[in-house]
Amino acid sequence: MKQDSLYFQSELYVVGNLDMEGYPVVYDEQTDSTKQQERHYYLLSELQTLVKDLPSSFQQRLSYTTLSDLALALIDGTVYDIVQGLLDIQHLTERNLYNQRQKLHCEHRALKQDLIRKHKEALQVCKSHNIAVMKTNQQAEMETLEIRVRDEQRMMDEKIVLELDQKVIDQQNTLEMAGVPGFYITTNPQELTMQINLLELIVKLQQKESQTGGPA
């Protein structure tokens, strides 16, 4: 019975791969290969067109080989999803950091306003012969607050720069791991600008494909 069971399972498997006339279906691997070649050519052609909008200095650095490798990396659309995910994270991070800085700014403004109010109230009840001394003390108190505000703003800005730098490293590493040409961890300004241009090309091409549905 076990042999019969295996036989029928095998027979059903074969039947499932027969065409309408009862002949086994032969999948043409060349069809997939041809489609990939056509898509690669389409992506490469689109990238070559988009590159023309970049500064000439960067156009010269984006060789045919680099663009061809980039087109290959974009064929299945995975890189589009990765880039979109990275951009979403970047925008969320920037918004959070901006909100943190705004919150600190509001706190500092409230501290200054509160101190000014206290100083004004104190002067109103201060005896005339003590006003000069009180004003001197109040000036020193305000200067101390100003120093505190500057220090806290500086620390906040340093924190923001560090977090954004880390996001850049994360993006570089992720895209390098995804096989996107031109991406690796670097702090070289020229290389960073090149990577920004490559990202711009990817985003523009993704937007165009979303609007047109890709090649016909």
Number of domains: 1
Strand content: under 5%
Low-confidence stretches are 1-23
Number of helices: 7
Rg, nearest Å: 32 Å
Gross morphology = rod-shaped
Q: Sketch the topology as an H/E string, one letter per element.
A: HHHHHHH
Reported for the largest beta sheet, the result is: none
- Counted beta strands: 0
Helicity range: over 70%
CA(first)-CA(last) distance: 53 Å
**Structural class based on helices, strands and sheet pairing:** mainly alpha
**Overall average pLDDT:** 86
Topology (SSEs and partners):
Elements: H1 2-15, H2 29-51, H3 56-61, H4 64-74, H5 78-125, H6 131-177, H7 189-212
Helix pairs in contact: 2-4, 2-7, 5-6
Task: Tag the structure with descriptive keywords.
single chain, mainly alpha, DGCR6, rod-shaped, 216 residues, Gonadal, 7 helices, disordered N terminus
Q: Would you give an account of this structure?
A:
Mean pLDDT is 86; it is low at 1-23. This protein has 216 residues and is an all-alpha fold. It is rod-shaped, with a radius of gyration of 32 Å. Helix content is 80%, strand content 0%. The chain has one domain (2-212). Helix 5 runs antiparallel to helix 6 (131-177). The longest helix is centred in the middle third of the chain and has 48 residues, at 78-125.
What can be said about this structure in brief?
This protein has 216 residues and is mainly α. It is 80% helix and 0% strand. It starts with a helix and ends with a helix.
